Amino acid sequence: MENAPGNPDDTPLSSAKRLLLAYLAEHDAPCPVCHYNLRNLTQDVCPECGQQFRLTFGAVNMRLGALLLLLAPMIMVSGLALLFLCIVCIEPGRAPSGVYVILVTGFLDVLAAFAAYWKRASFSVHPRNTRALLIGLSWIANLAIVGLSIAYFWR
User: What is the mean pLDDT of each run of 10 residues along the chain (155 residues)?
Assistant: First the structure.
């Protein structure tokens, strides 16, 4: 029997549940947890593993190119800092002071990369010009630090 108007079961959630069950009545779909075929499911719970489901939607392809371009110089400097940290640990007395600039920058870049990844959703909603500016500033700042540190290192 269909829910009458005003019935407490006639909520958006129960409507989403009905849509989910209607979809599963006609389609093969695996449980995301145990991969049990959910075709002809009568409840929003997997009979195999007990996982409850909900109807959601999402992007087919996440565009991560701009985020990767933003993260690349940070990861590069962090990797260089890790290499120099190994050098400092092996020969602590022979490391020039310019190495410490890269070590500090590498540590800060690790924090910045985690923050950028954590806030990736807010980064992706910025206009293209703003994202390009942030990407350019990330590359310029990191390459300048690496260049200055290497120039100081080799003088």
Answer: 48 76 90 89 89 79 84 91 84 73 86 91 88 94 84 69
pLDDT, residue 87, reads 79
Q: Are residues 51 and 72 in the same domain?
A: no
The neighbour count for residue 44, using CB atoms within 10 Å, is 19
**Cβ partners under 8 Å of residue 91, min gap 6:** none
CA gap 28, 124 in Å, rounded: 33
Q: Is 151 exposed, middle or buried (0-12, 13-18, 19+ CB in 10 A)?
A: exposed
pTM: 0.56
Range of the domain at 35: 1-57
Give residue for tokens 């800060």: 108
Count how many domains the chain has: 2
Q: Does 79 lie in the same domain as 149?
A: yes
CB atoms closer than 10 angstroms to residue 6: 6
